[in-house]
Write the structure tokens for this entry.
Amino acid sequence: MRMRKKPNLIPRMERCAAVLERQPEALKGRWRDGLPYGSLYLEIGCGKGRFTAETAAALPGVLYVAVERVPDAMVVAMERVCAAELSNVRFIDADARRLTELFAPGEADRIYINFCDPWPSRRHAKRRLTSPDFLRLYEQVLPHGGEVHFKTDNRPLFEYSLECFERRGWDLREVTGDLHAGGPVGVMTDYEEKFYRQGIPINRCVAVRPDVPLSEAGAAAERADNETEDTGKRPDTEKE
């Protein structure tokens, strides 16, 4: 759904200025310099930040960087973090396509992607945050063995994502089509809690960055996908 514009956005963001990096490009390669953090985790599309704040609170030894391109959502996340008095969270107002401008090779140890827009039409597939184009970006900012933790309620997007990870040689772990079947597991987003209460199953996986380059078979499959356009119409199932 679209985020409603907030008329008081600027003053609210200014009150949370301590957690907003206004020139993140200047920190490329030195995000943890002088800071007591052993790891750096990224969240792509933090939304209103419930997952951001609760995860960062549970991991005080990690520098947690949230990348969000919708300021009207990000300001709520910033307020949550400030209210919790968390010192290990930073926010970046940017598109995920800029990751390699903001982080050095191997600088991030983990990436979280929660309930991203599924972009159901094939002609919009490159916009999916688990498409081959985005996986190439993640491969540049993660070290060998770095992880992407992915959750979605959208089964077609999940199946597409698993296929993309496999084609590029990522190791898939903790794959499930019903994460909360036995009760709530881990930190939830606001959307996730709503889906759980409605009985909507949550898909989740952990994908581990490979040590070897994409196989020729995988590369050929990606090229074939990129050359194919779908002119049919499908229902729009946007969630965030």
